[in-house]
Write a structure and sequence with these properties.
Blueprint: H1 3-32, H2 41-66, H3 71-89, H4 95-110, H5 115-140, H6 165-187, H7 192-210, H8 226-248
Helix pairs in contact: 1-2, 2-3, 3-4, 5-6, 5-8, 6-7, 7-8
């Protein structure tokens, strides 16, 4: 056994031992005695376990490096897998978006994502934004489906604001313009104005994900209303994914 293989074996044993012993001798007792009014035990279990096992994943990454895997490929795996896990298990955790963005960027830097794949991602993103625009126009025309979870409300159920149909229609048209810009940029990737307008749209998505610190976004404090629950599980994760999808057209999604 050469030195690199021996080192990789050591990192692998560290990772396995850290995770196994942590579960058996530490995490089990911490979670069994968990008591918090702000975080249920189920959420705490996912977050605490994620933090603990992240070190094990990092050691697995070191083992892969010692075995000769490309650096950026290892970065993509070590950061991307926990990111996917958090997205699926705790979509309210702000870290998963940053982790996925880092992993995708690392993978693209090392191997390169095929232009056809970037194009497909960009156009799927544009189509999703189009559906969101159509849904806003549907509400503006008097539709009621899912409207009860589309507007932030206080703890007593009172809506924070009541948008008029005209305002809703304007929002729908702005979102429609965003979809059109994305699609246009897939066909004209060198168009400077469209490029920067898409960048601005991505920043708007990011700002929406961060939120106002109270009613919307990752950092909201009001979390027990119909809108807040939908925002945590659907709306905020969706805008992060749309921001990532929109970015694909900026790095080669055009033809």
């Amino acid at each position: 056994m050469d030195a690199n293989t021996a080192s990789a074996t050591g990192f692998l044993l560290l990772a396995l031992g850290h995770s196994a012993l942590g579960e058996a001798r530490l995490l089990k007792d911490i979670l069994a005695n968990w008591s918090s009014e702000t975080m249920p035990r189920s959420s705490a279990a996912v977050i605490i376990r994620s933090a603990w096992h992240a070190l094990s994943v990092a050691w697995l990454g070191m083992a892969m490096l010692m075995l000769g895997l490309p650096t950026w490929t290892v970065v993509a795996i070590v950061v991307g897998l926990p990111g996917v896990f958090l997205l699926v298990s705790v979509p309210t955790h702000v870290a998963w978006g940053l982790m996925l963005a880092t992993a995708i960027t690392a993978y693209h830097a090392e191997i390169g994502i095929a232009a056809t794949t970037l194009l497909l991602i960009a156009r799927c993103t544009a189509f999703t934004v189009l559906l969101i625009a159509i849904w806003h126009i549907y509400w503006a025309l008097g539709g009621q489906l899912w409207l009860n979870i589309a507007i932030p409300s206080g703890a007593d159920g009172t809506p924070v604001f009541r948008p008029s149909r005209w305002l809703t229609a304007c929002v729908g048209l702005v979102i429609l313009a965003k979809a059109a810009l994305l699609w246009f940029l897939t066909m004209q990737p060198t168009h400077t104005l469209a490029y920067w307008l898409v960048v601005c749209g991505i920043l708007v998505f990011v700002a929406r994900a961060v939120g106002d610190g109270k009613y919307v976004g990752f950092f909201k404090t009001e979390r027990d209303t119909p809108f807040a629950r939908a925002d945590s599980r659907i709306f905020t994760p969706l805008v992060v994914l749309l921001a990532l999808g929109s970015s694909s057209v900026l790095v080669g999604g055009g033809t």
